[in-house]
Design goal:
The complex is a heterodimer of chains A (287) and B (259). With 287 residues, chain A is α/β, with parallel strands linked by helices. Helices cover 28% and strands 17% of the residues of chain A. Chain B is globular, with a radius of gyration of 18 Å. The chains are: A alpha/beta (287), B alpha/beta (259).
Chain lengths: 287, 259
């Protein structure tokens, strides 16, 4: 159908694995999602050669978007070298023969699980999130019919019930990841299981943010420069995590840190979860 | 003082489930501050009627008109879904026979009471909590249980919690489906006492469906007796219970066991 199909990386596969009809269907869902920020658009999710929960939604969005000139970066928990990231990167190297990178600034498409890169994104870049549960109301309301009606009528009081419950039990809002946000002042959206540390980065980000949920068959989006506000109470405002430590490798103090156990004697250190950002900082230091 | 215009006005209301008539030809007015009891045996259409009145079920025929605070008299089933749902969670209350249906069992008592406030835009935790405490006191619950899960509550406490959850937005009309069903008699008596006090103090209007004539006598000013989907007798509570006219009402009154 398009000349893309002639450039398939590995014999027997169409360019980027999915057939062109499917890509077209996914692109239409993406366009609709971009037109209605935060709204979950149903799409005909395909069976992918990896299990649900490993990024079937994200990989389909990426496959529908990617072209021969794109440079792909894949991160899992901030790192480029974890199993999920390595296999998805290799999947597109084989099926689309595209260039890949671990450097945030070089990438045109970044597929992510659980993090937003520390390096600020630029206009023209696309961030693709892997989403296990796209429905922010699901934990409180089991019925899909009811949650859709609630979105349609903007009935979001129940989201605050969840936050109320947090404060009543823990004295503060203890939700630390998948922290609900309101997009463009209208739809309440699940930001996927990113730490709430990353929530402020979504707000008015110059990059296009796309969310794919393969098992739940939903795509949604935050277009560039769109407001994304984390829900909170007037007397318990939204806060992000802070650490007393700094990164043991690069010394960063303003990044999301992972705690790493180093031995059985209680030895531990904190390092940046974003491996590329940490690496870049050390390279600059060495120069 | 009873105001000059009815709060709720029902005419020609009927509902059938695929041709099986559940209730028909229902017409009555409910006045502000009035408590209307609906009595009748199982299967007489009481619950269908209550659901059709409270916008939980779209009736096959007839109209239900309600006097809202802002717009005056409106036809409930002509409102948009958004307006209707707003009415249901602010100006109306619904007390289920089984409190588990009306409560959110997975969150604390305080969150249950506060939910309606948050649904209409309350965003100050301290104020929501203070209001929840106030309402737990109103329904005579131990405020120390505010952070406990409803799963740890007894049947009577659950029912009190459900009532508090409904009243927190100061509704003007409360629908109750067998509010004391399934409770033992001493708990039932205390709950009835509480309900009667609340209805009087707050000037609520209420429609109470019950098969228990003692509950009807204690709470309601006026009674509708239903039989085979139709209202067969209506009048002041004492009048209907002491001097029933329709054969079915007579049967109903004479069937009550006295210990």
């Amino acid at each position: 159908m398009t000349d893309e199909s002639d450039t398939a990386g590995e014999n027997g596969y169409n360019f980027a694995y999915l057939d062109e009809q499917t890509k077209r269907m996914i692109r239409r869902a993406i366009l609709k999602a971009v037109a209605v920020p935060g709204y979950q658009v149903p799409f005909g999710s395909r069976e992918m050669p990896l299990p649900y929960g490993w990024g079937t939604g994200g990989i389909q969005v990426t496959a529908a978007l990617i072209g021969p000139d794109d440079v792909l970066k894949v991160i899992d928990q901030g790192a480029d070298d974890t199993t999920n990231a390595v296999s998805i990167r290799r999947f597109f190297e084989r099926t689309a023969a595209i260039a890949t990178t671990t450097r945030t600034v070089e990438a045109t498409i970044i597929q992510t699980r659980h993090r937003i890169p520390e390096t600020p994104l630029a206009p023209g870049q696309i961030l693709v999130y892997q989403v296990p549960q796209p429905e922010p109301l699901r934990r409180l309301v089991a019925s899909e019919v009811e949650t859709r009606t609630m979105h349609a009528l903007e009935e979001y009081g129940v989201m605050h019930v969840r936050l109320y419950e947090d404060i009543a039990r823990h004295g503060r809002i203890a939700t630390a990841y998948d922290y609900p946000v309101k997009v463009n002042g209208r739809y309440v959206m699940a930001p996927s299981p990113i730490p709430k540390f990353d929530n402020p980065k979504m707000d008015r980000n110059p990059a296009l943010q796309l969310f794919g949920a393969g098992r739940e068959k939903r795509i949604y989006a935050v277009p560039p420069h769109t407001s994304v506000k984390s829900l909170d109470f007037d007397d318990h405002p939204f806060e992000i995590e802070r650490w007393n430590e700094s990164c043991a490798l690069c010394g960063a103090t303003e990044t999301f840190l992972d705690e790493v156990l180093t031995d059985d004697a209680g030895g531990r250190l904190f390092v940046c979860s974003d491996s590329d950002y940490c690496h870049e900082r050390r390279v600059v230091e060495d120069d | 003082m009873i105001e000059a215009a009815p709060l709720l006005s029902v005419s020609g209301l009927g509902h059938d489930y695929d041709g099986i008539i559940a209730c028909r030809h229902i017409a009555f007015d409910l006045w502000p501050g009035e408590v209307l009891g609906v009595v009748g045996e199982s299967g007489s259409g009481k619950t269908t009627l209550l659901n059709a009145l409270s916008a939980r079920l779209i009736p096959t025929t007839g109209t239900v008109r309600y006097r809202t605070r802002e717009q005056g008299m409106v036809e409930v089933y002509r409102l948009s879904e958004a307006e209707r749902r707003m009415l249901m969670r602010t100006d109306w209350g619904f007390v289920h026979q089984n409190p588990r249906e009306g409560l959110r069992m997975s969150v604390s008592a305080g969150a249950n009471v506060g939910e309606r406030l948050m649904a209409v835009g309350a965003r100050h935790y301290g104020e929501i909590r203070a209001e929840a405490v106030r309402w737990l006191e109103q329904v005579e619950m131990d405020t120390g249980r505010i952070d406990d899960s409803p799963r740890t509550f007894s049947g009577g406490m659950l029912q009190r919690l459900q009532i508090a959850r409904n009243l927190v937005t100061k509704p003007r009309l409360v629908f109750m489906d067998e509010p004391t069903g399934g409770l033992d008699v001493s708990v039932q008596a205390r709950l009835l006492d509480l309900l009667r006090g609340l209805v009087g103090d707050l000037g609520l209007s209420a429609i109470i469906v019950t098969h228990d004539l003692a509950v009807a006598r204690m709470l309601s000013h006026r009674l509708l007796v239903m039989w085979r989907g139709e209202v067969v007798e209506t009048g002041l509570t004492d009048q209907v219970l002491d001097d029933p006219q329709h054969p079915y009402s007579q049967l109903l009154v004479s069937s009550v066991l006295t210990p």
